[in-house]
Amino acid sequence: MAESARARNRPPFRADHVGSLVRAPELVEARAARSRGELAEEALREVQQTAIREVVRRQEEIGLQAVSDGEFNRGSWQTDFVLKIANVEPATPRFSIRFHSEKGDTEGRPHTVRVTGKVSRPQPIFVEDFKFLRSIARALPKITLPSPSVLHFRGGREGIDAKAYPELEEFYQDLAQVYREEIADLAAAGCRYLQLDEVNLAYLCDPVLREDVRRNIGEDPTILPRTYARLINAAIHDRPSDMTVCLHLCRGNFAGNWMASGGYEPVAEVLFNEINVDGYFLEYDSDRAGGFEPLKLVPHGKMVVLGLVTTKRPRLESREEILRRIEEASRFLPLEQLALSPQCGFSSGIAGATMASEEQFAKLARIVEVAQEVWG
User: How many domains does the chain have?
Assistant: First the structure.
């Protein structure tokens, strides 16, 4: 399966990963101590930076060409960002959702926010975090942001103040501006690899959740993907030409649980041909995500990073099973447009990891090993 073309010299790389990593126990405890008022903010930052230095070193030793800070400065992949947008506040969920796992189903309530006025960006959000990562990384530093669709999908029209935004189009314009400002500052700080975590399009692949969208947030699930495509395109419109932007899609990931199932067919045309990104990190670690057939719609020049290695259980995938799945995917998209990664991050928040740190690194090392065999 070796590829004759030279290895990619810009992201996404043949061996890549989504971003979040298992937090060390001392980091979890430091954050808990800070929340109890027993640790100063500066002391927490020192613990975080020490942990980040170590996790970056481990990624580089494995041979990854892009490294993240593991999202070690965040309690959650999404709320640490969106709650720093002006007039965005936590909200009580209006509805429950069903979480699935290999042990069975449970009812739960998703993280929900509300927009209480005009959204804006009073100050940079993750820019200082990126600057620190860049200062210590030898490999290419990568940063992740929650997709702007999060602010709408979790509450719909009822979650956005009607006095501030009688028409949602103005809300989308202001929200895109928040992202343009953040991306501009990240670019000025040297960021050339950005990932948006766009889980909501994956949720719209699930027939049950599509009906929930109609019932709970009053949106047409056949129209919403195009709405989000326009929003994402507006958010990244002014990025530098040499900045790679990718979307990551998954069907929920917390403590081995997921929320959605279903192949990419309902959103594939919009996802691959109407959103102006360079690549896609796609969940493909189980039959939850359906088959590889939608990859036929990916245009030339875009990359798909196959999430074939699961973060939901610690068992290490064999080289043979990963190679077989890559071969299956290459029947629908040329091998030169494919790469390999885990299906999601290893820890979407401060808690909820499904494996030990060393088990995580064994999976990342297996990804590098297989990628070298396949693409050279």
Answer: 1
